[in-house]
Design a protein that fits this description.
By secondary structure, this protein is mainly β. About 30% of the residues are buried. It has strands at about 1-5, 10, 15-25, 25-40, 45-50, 55-60, 65-70, 75-80, 90-100, 110-115, 120-124.
Length: about 120
């Protein structure tokens, strides 16, 4: 299963960006989809995630500013980021877990995958 993220860029403080991430491959089902981020010299941290039914969870640092959503028909997760701050600057990684079809579509294998990351830079 591959995850392809897009939508990063450079924006001034107070601005907005929307990230997208598409999962592809022989996917049987996707459970949670989410976003993590890693700033320079820091560990990767949780940002937000969403269940297939739409239940969301956010890191305290992004609550009320970021909105996660997903389109189950497109295996896609989004992250709308508003009121961006310089401290939001990081590489953002999408994540998804679920099951995919094995060889010959005869069995299922779990996956927990990350995308390649997209850079978000917020200037003051």
């Amino acid at each position: 299963v591959q995850l392809q993220a897009s939508g990063g860029g450079m924006v001034q403080a107070g601005g907005s960006l929307k990230l997208s991430c598409v999962a592809s491959g022989a996917i049987y089902n996707i459970n949670s989809m989410g976003w993590y981020r890693q700033a320079p010299s820091k560990q990767r941290e949780f940002v937000a995630d969403i269940t297939p039914g739409g239940t969301t969870k956010y890191a305290d640092s992004v609550k009320e500013r970021f909105t996660i959503s997903r389109d189950n028909t497109k295996n896609t997760v989004y992250l709308q980021m508003d009121s961006l701050k310089p401290e939001d600057t990081a590489v953002y990684y999408c994540n998804a877990d679920g099951q995919y079809y094995g060889t010959g579509f005869s069995y299922l294998t779990p996956f927990d995958s990350y995308g390649q990351g997209t850079q978000v830079t917020v200037s003051s």
